[in-house]
C-alpha cells in the first residue's frame, strides 16, 4: 500500500494592488530552496539566452531578481552564476558560445 507524504510550505506576500507589485515576501526555507533549485537548472541558461520580449510571465522577472540579489542573502559557498546557469559546467553554454 502506498503512503503519502505531505509537506506544507509558507509564503506570505504584501502586494501593492494599485501598482501591481509585491512589496514584501516572507517564505519558508523550502520555498526559497525550491525557487533557487528551479533557477539552477539549465532553464536559467535558456532564459538568459532569450530576449526580454520573448520571456513569458514572471519567469524573466524572477531571473532578473536573482541577477540583482545581494550576496548578503546567499549562502557563503553559493555563487550567483550557478543559480543563473552561467556556470561553464552546463553544456548549453558551450553550444551558445559556438553560435556567436
From TrEMBL:
Pfam families: DUF674 (PF05056). This is DUF674 family protein. It comes from Prunus dulcis (Almond). It comes from the Eukaryota.
